[in-house]
């Protein structure tokens, strides 16, 4: 099943890559937040650093540094902790982006040069990181502040790709006890008509049947409520024309349309009173044995 879906979603990993900014799946409103100031190191040695008198150029060793050249003079600039140089006017923050987006570590041997500055759920001040206990959630870190995010649809977070992915591509996801016997499928919830568990890759998601339907524990799908024992809808009653019907209706939950009401109760003389549109009628008890409304 997932293989067929992958043909239609050839880039489930694009949820967190560059194209996700256009598709709307980018976690968090990253570009709207205040940006901490960059800092500059002392002038780097000239050598061949400045390929042009003015411009931005990659660092020769570290992904998270770059050179800014002005009139032939170079300065070494550090990206915010956890981000890497992406190029002039590119990335999330003025020339810097997530390392996995810019190919860091690089084929040229470049690595991250800064030491991680971690907070509770953020190994680095900026980045996208796996949740400690959930396969469907992850952390979006911005300047050390962690915001929890949820993978869309039935996807799980793939830490190797830093993106949400199909469950069969995330084999390390820990299976939940609810789904231990059926990692993919539907699980009924005891004493619930409208809700059920959808297990995806061993992890449960709470689902709800549409209005008028109930989840069938035998069919393992949403069906008409009247076809699921114990989940039948209230009976819509018409005028009671025959007294012998009264007992069978009273034993069920009976709701009258058009604001008409029917009450069954035991009077002091142990006979039952029927109140219908304001008219009371004495009924013989033998017609109403078992009425519990």
Automatic annotation (TrEMBL):
SMART domains for the chain: ChtBD2 (SM00494)
Instruction: Kindly indicate whether the keyword Oxidoreductase belongs to this entry.
Output: no
**GO-annotated molecular function:** chitin binding
According to UniProt, the name of this protein is Protein obstructor-E
Q: Where is it found, in Gene Ontology cellular component terms? A: extracellular region
Keywords annotated in UniProt: Chitin-binding, Disulfide bond, Glycoprotein, Repeat, Signal
Residue ranges annotated as transmembrane are none
The record's InterPro entries line, in alphabetical order, gives: Chitin-bd_dom (IPR002557), Chitin-bd_dom_sf (IPR036508), Chitin_bind-dev_reg (IPR051940)
Chitin-binding type-2 domain: from which residue to which, for each copy? 47-106, 119-175, 176-233
**Please, which domain of life does this record's source organism belong to?**
Eukaryota
Phylogenetic placement of the source organism = Eukaryota, Metazoa, Ecdysozoa, Arthropoda, Chelicerata
């Amino acid at each position: 099943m997932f293989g067929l879906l992958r043909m239609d979603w050839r880039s489930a990993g694009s949820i967190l890559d560059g194209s996700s900014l256009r598709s709307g799946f980018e976690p968090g409103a990253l570009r709207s937040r205040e940006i901490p100031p960059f800092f500059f190191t002392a002038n780097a040695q000239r050598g061949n650093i400045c390929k042009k008198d003015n411009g931005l150029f990659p660092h020769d060793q570290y992904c998270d540094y770059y050179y800014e050249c002005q009139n032939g003079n170079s300065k070494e600039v550090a990206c915010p902790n956890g981000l890497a140089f992406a190029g002039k006017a590119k990335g999330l923050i003025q020339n810097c982006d997530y390392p996995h987006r810019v190919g860091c570590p690089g084929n040229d041997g470049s690595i991250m040069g800064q030491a991680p500055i971690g907070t509770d759920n953020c190994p680095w001040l900026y980045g996208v990181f796996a949740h400690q206990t959930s396969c469907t959630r992850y952390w979006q870190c911005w300047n050390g502040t962690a915001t929890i995010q949820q993978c869309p649809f039935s996807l799980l977070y793939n830490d190797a790709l830093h993106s949400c992915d199909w469950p069969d591509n995330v084999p390390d996801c820990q299976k939940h006890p609810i789904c231990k016997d059926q990692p993919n499928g539907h699980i009924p919830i005891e004493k619930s008509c409208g809700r059920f568990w959808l297990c995806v890759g061993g992890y449960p998601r709470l689902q709800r049947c549409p209005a008028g339907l109930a989840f069938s524990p035998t069919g393992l799908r949403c069906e008409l409520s009247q076809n699921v024992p114990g989940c039948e809808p209230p009976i819509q009653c018409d005028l009671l024309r025959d007294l012998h019907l009264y007992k069978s209706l009273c034993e069920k939950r009976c709701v009258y349309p058009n604001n008409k009401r029917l009450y069954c109760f035991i009077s002091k003389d142990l006979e039952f009173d029927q109140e219908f549109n304001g008219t009371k009628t004495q009924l013989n008890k033998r017609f109403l044995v078992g009425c519990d409304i």
